[in-house]
Amino acid sequence: MIQNLKIKTGIILSIFLFAAAISAQVPKPVKPQFPKSETPAEKAIAVDAKVNISLCVAKGKINVNGWDRKEVRAYVSSGGSRVGFKVLKKDKDEKAVWIMVVGFDTREIGASQSEECLSGDDIELDVPRGAIVNIKSRDSETKIESVDKVRFSNVGGNVFFDNIANGIEAETKQGSITVGNSGGLIGLSTTNGNIVVFNANPSEVSDFLKVHTINGTITLQEIEHLLLDVNSFSGSIKFTGEPISGGQYNFVTQSGAIMLSIPQESSCKVNAFWRSGAFNSLIPMQNIKKTSVSGVQNLTGQIGGGEAMFNLTTSGGRIFIQKSDK
Amino acid sequence: MKNNCLDIGTIQAFLDGELDGVLMENAADHLADCDDCAISLANSEEESAIAFTALDAELNTLVPTQRLWAKINSEIEREKKPFWQTAFAFFKNPTITAFASMLIVFGLFMAYLNSQAGEKDTQLAGMTESKTVITKPILVSKSSDPIETPSENNSPINIDQPTVKSKSDFRVIKAVVTENQPIRKDERTSKIPDEVKAQPTSYQYLPGEESYIKTIATLENNVNSRKDEVLKPSERFTYEQNLAIVNDSITKMRKEVKKNPRNGAAKQILMASYQNKVDLLNSVTESNELMALR
Hints:
The complex is a heterodimer. By secondary structure, chain A is mainly β. Chain A has a domain at 34-139. Chain A is built from one helix and 24 strands. Chain A has a 24-stranded mixed β-sheet that branches. Chain A is elongated and about 115 Å long. Chain B has helices at residues 8-15, 21-33, 35-59, 66-80, 83-91, 94-117, 185-191, 209-230, 233-259, 264-291. Chains A and B meet through β6, β13, β20 and β22 of A and α2, α3, α9 and α10 of B.
């Protein structure tokens, strides 16, 4: 009987301890959910004229403009995320030289656990003209104008750069890139999309233009860089403008065409390689040497004084040189 | 307009690169001088560009075209046929039948010769000297020059009885030997001056080629393990299509460079193709990394 009692006591005690253990569990912390702002969110911060600005955008239409104030203003339209600033570095005068624009108000409690990326139908940033802008985005249509330098990375969406003074590095997977009236070192890359560059010039002699796409065409017009490295896997490359004296133009495509539209009085050498395709030039060339071995063709020739150099390589496309209107 | 202006057909042919060498040059010279023809050419070029842009949208679209689907369906239908039906249809072609019969006869003949020889073939590196015996070539020479065969060689050579052949009668790539004696290089070259130099047993990489190959191998391992997860079907189609194009180019150019190591144009296209393949594989690798951001 005593034994039965012991057993019953043990069972009851076990049940009691089990119930206590369940009730004593620490509740799982719940990530604070900040509701989408039903009103537009707008913030501003005083910064140095050459501030470095970083931001991440989940989804939206991004518009970055340079202005003359030493201030960064961020705006997100209604229905989007909130907006705030994190100052990452200050100079000795206590001016912010490196800031991050985030998708929450940093003054709210628990806000640091929210997603840092902005999102919204319209995201606008007004930044000093001397600012360096770094954007990482997922899906966005982007336009950046009148800043000093840009680093941009995107998964999907088109991007347009205008009046960027000292350099652009941009890549997107699905989308086109357009650059106009800009300077400095320019490096553009897209997997599926076209690239258009017009009126580009170097800030320093060593600045080069590097453009690369897998599936898409590349159009270059009025480029003053001395070194061009242009590669399109299956799209065509079209170059319009006068080659610069001493310039080196390397155009490579696997199966696309290469079209040069240059003035008749240009001064350049041409070194062309192609496998299955054709080479046509409407501009008379001198000192032509052509070799053809087992279907692989190579042609070298000179137009005018031969001061610039075109290295043109295509495996399956054609090469065409024509006179431009200028 | 001058009397000898080019007609629109000639201009279009010029644009498409279909004119012969002399006609091409004449046309180019005329176009350089004649403004009217140059305008016509520019108009044709513009029209072609519009047409190509329209076609470009179709051909470069990520969605397979109707034409491609039809091809895929016909391939599936073809595979559904029983094997014997396919084989029978193939051999019904009289040309194929004749060629296959010739191959069979030739194979039987070579088997007969080999059985008569009763000797093992040796590798060229381990080739030893046969003082007087030079046998019938077994492999076709890869050089562009035709192989000279002995004038009396309408009948098979009797290998059991060594015969002295004239040194200039034929060129030998591979020889069957009867005695195991090491050859000295000068003896070999002096006794058989017309012998075609053997192809190198290992392919000599171009400068930088080996690192390209290693990089491509690493990237391919990475891509092949993840491409089904990373790429949508339409993207996968485009990727495989591009990969096939660049692999074809690499294979052909490697073969050309191996055959003619001095072909600078082939080297240039080979290196460009390697770089294109690296860029293509990188584009998939980067897509894989960025998938996490979506």
